[in-house]
Amino acid sequence: MGNDLLPGTLDMLILRSLARSPRHGYGIAQHLKRISEDVLDVGESSLYPALQRLLLNGWVTAQWGASENNRRARYYKLTAAGRKQLATENKEFGRMILAIQKVMSCA
Amino acid sequence: MRLIRRILYFFGQRRQAADLAEEMDFHRQLLEQESGDRYAANRKMGASSLAREDARAVWFPFRLDHLLQDLRIGLRMLRRSPGFSILAILCLTLGIGANAAVFSWIEGILFRPYPLVAHQERLVAIGGTARDEPRGTPLSWPDFQDLQRNCTLCETVFVSKITGTTLSMGDRAERTSGSIVSANYFDAIGVPPMLGRGFLPAEDQGQSAHPVTVISYQLWQGRFSGDPQIIGKTERLDGVVHTIVGVAPEGFYGTFVGWRMNFWVPVSMEDTFEGGGYKLEDRGARWIESYARLKPGVTQAQAQQELAAISPRLEATYPATNRGRGIRVWPLWQTPFNNAATLLPTLETMLVVVVCVLLIACANVGNLLLVRSFARRHEMSVRLAIGAGQGRLWKQLLTEGLVLSLFGAAGGLLVAYWCRHALVLLFPARGGVQMYLPGELDWRVLALSAAVCLATTLLMGLVPALQTGKIDLASSMKMEAAGVVGGHGRAWVRSGLVLVQVSLSFILLVGTGLLMQSLLTIRSTSPGFNARGVQYTGIDLVSVGYTPARAQSFQDELLERVRSLPGVESAAFSRMVPLSYVSSATAPIVVDGYTPPPEESPTVDYNEVGPDYFVTMGIPLVAGREFTRADDDKAALAAVVNETMAQRYWNGRNPLGQRFQLKGRWLQVVGIAKDSKYSSVREKPTPFFFIPLRQNNLRGGVLNLRTPLAPQTMATALAREVHALDPNIAPYELITMQEQLERSTSPQMVAVTLVGVLGGLALLLAIIGLYAVMSYAVSQSTRELGLRMALGADASNLLRLVLSRGLALTGAGVLLGIATALLLTRLLGNLLYKVSPRDPVAFASASLVMTLAALAACFLPAWRATRTDPARILRD
Fold it and tell me: What does the CA dihedral B13, B14, B16, B19 come to, rounded to 10 degrees?
């Protein structure tokens, strides 16, 4: 569940999954699930508040469009600011993981 | 940027919410398709309404929508139980209204008493000090000028001394008050006249040299019908034709707490209005009442320090007049020379009283809410069960409390608005003129009332909110709403609230008792003169332009005529009436054979009186004689001293035939009068002396009559005699000395009335609280009562049981009240007269009243308990 992630990580993951192309909410959840091989199963109770946060920060925009099976779906798209944010977070995350690994392997 | 997005979101809220719902729905459907199991999808998604709320909360973390929702629920709850709502709102209206009213009085009378005057927060009163004069003395003009020159921390220093005159309004005479002010007055207070000018610096000098006046807006409108050409016209004030040089702006009433000023004259005109000779060059004549505005940032202590340093220099330079005298600064609300000083203790007491009333009201409403929260236990449990957080419930309960107290505050402000000028109604009018004591409902009062309202909300809302913390979800869901168990903790809280109510209203009862006792003591204190049989009136001859000689003959003739009126036993003129606001004349004296200690410059108050004064007033002479018509300007100067003066300055020797010096003239003591009260019934025996009117060429405007007739009867006869001598003169209203006595104790009367009324209301509230708790307890323990009856308890047993529970609660409350009252009643200090703040009678009678009230409150529930039908209870 997304709830068990480190705080702020979900936002980063969502940004990452939008890096290639716009996706709708369900698509994001599916993407995360598929790539993480079923480890990250994000429910709507964490996904949608996270998307609202990204909207509020101006990192993504939302637009209604047609889904694969031609239904109305709301697509989220990364903005320039979102891309920059993703880069920063990516770097920060790398540093953090490294640091955690160091601590864990030293003990 | 985030803010702009928030705002955009706020305006597109409805669409945003629809979008969110739609996309979540879409999500859910796809999930359902994927798993083919609707319930699995739901399980996985969790409570979607909660998720939606969380998503929206990202945009509005402060949950305006929740607040609105809670407000709606709160309003709906109010509508659903109108009885509860009305009772609760009434309690709060009373509590908050009483507070707001007293705040507005304190603001309008003590803190910002002078409309239009600039920077009142930096104004201080300045007066003199002397040994034996704890309330301060006036200053002399030369001392004031030294002070004005030397006060570097003061932005400005100015004089404002109340005086009065008679104006003929058409065919009737009307007394009106005005101020004698220093020339800088209108500049100093920052209130430029709306027409004409203020005073010029030169108008501070010379004996009655500058008969100019600035009149008030009301006077201009009323007496001169708003004449635009008013400047330069004249008006006779106290016999002297004054040129009107200015008109004060509308809404400016001068600088004296208690009365509106209608005219202002420069200090050089002082002796025209006050008599007693030219004082601007006399350092011994103290009459100046003054104020200073401190420079920004200067504290009162600093100002006090600087002024205190001036007085030793004055003492050293002018020992004859200034020995043992100092200069003191008072904050505006402690000004000793106007009604601020008399009202301060009353208003302080009121503040404590209204806080007590508010607490009692809060406790009552808290109790009501508690009962209701019990009824809503089920609702709360359900809401908790479907996922409302504890915090959310708290918020809702507090919001409901807020709704209540907002209504209460609205009602309270209405009450305060009606009552803002009510204080004055408790004071009798003097000479037909009503005092002016306005309350001020400015933003400070409103802010403070809002704070009170919030505090109230917290106090009341907290009680049921704390209770929700105790809800055990599982058992409460199972038990439905009928669960009586668990009422134990609640019963404790309710009893606690009643305990607080009982003790608070007990404190108010004790306060009322103490004030009542001291009022009775004051009223039964002999003033040292005959109050019942003596009446007085003022006859103003100066205003109509009589010369001293003509006034003298008028008075002699009038006295002859009045004495021969049926029912008049004796009559005499005097300059002033005892116990009036107009202070006695006061002057330094030198007593033959008395060497004052280094710290003292003997100064004694005196009055000028005509022949037969002592007989008329009923003041006994211990030795010697009283003044006769022979004591005139050709005879040797005479004086009658009182016993205290004889004791202090002649110390055992017989003062008869001895001499003392007043204003450079030697007087011989011809009589000794018994002590009486001069300026206040509460004063200690003070040295005082009398000198003959005729030897001092002073205006004796007061006619004292000794008669058993009613004032109304007397007034007609008197007016006839006055008119017979001069049809242009009308005497003022005739009042008895008894009335004068009662007027002079009106601050005490006001305190008793206010504390009594609010104390009564508080008692009523507390009784309602006690009644509610006892009835509730009885209704909840019918099972126990039924069992007791079945086991052989009879009606009197049950009656005793319930009553004793109520009385135990009351007893505990009274004990708590006694402990608190012993600490609190000292605050009454100055309002008490010859009554100890720990007076056992007051405490005992308050306990008695409380117990009787409690018995009354418990009797109905107890009686209901005896009507329990054991058969039915056992059957059910």
Answer: 170
Closest residue in A to B30 (Cα) is A26
Min distance B15 CA to chain A CA atoms (Å): 13
Residue B39 contacts by C-beta under 8 Å, 6 or more apart in sequence? none
Return the H-helix or E-strand segment holding B454: helix B443-468
Q: What is the pLDDT of residue B805?
A: 85
Question: Which helix (H) or strand (E) covers residue A3, if one does?
Answer: none
Domains of chain A: 2-106 (1.10.10.10)
- ipTM summary value: 0.85
In this complex, do B27 and A72 lie within 8 Å of one another by their Cβ atoms? Answer: no
The alpha-carbon gap from A106 to the nearest alpha carbon of chain B, in Å, equals 38
Q: How far is A36 from chain B (nearest CA, A)?
A: 18
Cα separation of B590 and B148, whole Å?
A: 29
List chain B domain ranges: 2-61, 66-117+345-483, 132-323, 496-528+738-876, 534-737
Is the pLDDT score of B493 beyond 80? no
Residue B19, chain A, CB below 8 Å: the answer is: yes
Q: What are phi and psi of B331, to 5 degrees?
A: -65, 155
Residue matched to tokens 């709403």:
B481
The percentage of chain B sitting over the pLDDT mark of 90, rounded to a whole number, equals: 33
Checking if the pLDDT of B847 tops 90, the result is yes
Q: Cβ of B26 and A49 within 8 Å?
A: no
pLDDT at A3: 47
Predicted confidence (pLDDT) per residue in B264-306, tens digit: 999 999 888 877 778 899 888 889 999 999 999 999 999 999 9
Joined tokens for residue B371? 């009962």
What residues contact residue B492 under an 8 Å CB cut-off, 6+ apart?
none
Residue linked to tokens 């302080």: B348
Biggest alpha carbon distance in chain A? 54
